[in-house]
């Protein structure tokens, strides 16, 4: 199905025709022309059955005895084919808030996720005839798309080179909108925006995952501290050797590096011990 324009004209012209026909029918009735009067009334009824009112941002789908005639989008009162069924389809922008879905991310961790979908109907024929209920279709397909996208990425990771649900919300939302648009093309619906509104670990693993994140953060920080301490100790030894002010043998170099590493890596402030030499 594809939307097309239905034949229609200004509805006020149809109202004037109906009034004129009824006036002539009344005049014919007064002159005892019963057959002519009945015929004029029937014609007026035929014209009246073709009248329809179209609201702003609304489309009237016109069906004539099971056959799709076309769609009227121009707001106001219109006159179209008589004895047709007119189904109203809203063209307004609408929001759909999905439920909080429990899914597993790419690492198998259960998470809770929800989103808001902003959409509108752009093809009234597809929305009416290609699906049973386009609003229900949008709801079901939205939840299916959210589940599919959520299973492609991890909730969070310490590696900045990987896309995550928490750290790359814009990328995930765009992919969700693109996938949802592919699913809703059959219903004549345009996806304007798709955004994540809720994202969290599932309650049964939330505390465990928090501890895991804290442990991973501490491990990453320790790694950076150790790398920095090794670099600083190496630079100190090289600078003292190059200046030639102090001669250090291998044992003293090891002790110096050991002291520097302890002073830098330790969580507490270093307490130096001053060697004053022997008293005797």
Automatic annotation (TrEMBL):
For the keyword Transmembrane helix, the answer is: yes
| CDD domains with a match to the protein in the record | SPFH_like_u2 (cd03402)
Q: Which InterPro entries match?
A: Band_7 (IPR001107), Band_7/SPFH_dom_sf (IPR036013)
| Band domain span | 49-213
SUPFAM superfamilies from the xrefs? Answer: Band 7/SPFH domain
What keywords does the record list, in alphabetical order? Membrane, Transmembrane, Transmembrane helix
Q: This protein's superkingdom? A: Bacteria
| Membrane-crossing residue ranges in chain numbering | 6-27, 34-54
PANTHER family given in the database record: BAND 7 DOMAIN-CONTAINING PROTEIN, MEMBRANE PROTEIN-RELATED
Q: What is this protein called?
A: Band 7 domain-containing protein
């Amino acid at each position: 199905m594809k939307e097309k324009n239905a034949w229609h004209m200004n509805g006020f012209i149809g109202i004037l025709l109906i009034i004129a026909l009824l006036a002539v029918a009344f005049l014919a009735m007064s002159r005892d022309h019963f057959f002519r009067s009945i015929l004029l009334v029937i014609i007026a009824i035929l014209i009246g059955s073709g009248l329809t009112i179209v609201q702003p941002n609304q489309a009237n789908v016109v069906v004539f005895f099971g056959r799709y005639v076309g769609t009227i989008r121009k707001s106001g009162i219109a006159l179209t084919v008589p004895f047709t069924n007119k189904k109203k389809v809203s063209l307004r922008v609408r929001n759909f808030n999905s439920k909080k879905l429990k899914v597993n991310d790419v690492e198998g961790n259960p998470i809770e996720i929800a989103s808001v979908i902003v959409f509108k109907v752009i093809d009234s024929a597809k929305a009416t005839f290609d699906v049973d209920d386009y609003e229900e279709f949008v709801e079901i397909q939205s939840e299916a798309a959210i589940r599919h996208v959520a299973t492609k990425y991890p909730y969070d990771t310490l590696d900045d080179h990987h896309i995550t649900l928490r750290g790359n919300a814009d990328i995930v939302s765009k992919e969700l909108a693109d996938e949802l648009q592919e699913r809703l093309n059959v219903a004549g619906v345009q996806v304007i925006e798709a955004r994540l509104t809720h994202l969290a670990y599932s309650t049964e693993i939330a505390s465990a995952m928090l501890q895991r994140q804290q442990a991973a953060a501490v491990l990453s920080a320790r790694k950076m501290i150790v790398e920095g301490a090794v670099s600083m100790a190496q630079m100190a030894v090289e600078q003292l050797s190059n200046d030639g002010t102090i001669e250090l043998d291998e044992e003293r170099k090891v002790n110096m590096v050991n002291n520097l590493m302890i002073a830098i890596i330790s969580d507490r402030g270093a307490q130096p011990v001053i060697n004053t030499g022997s008293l005797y």
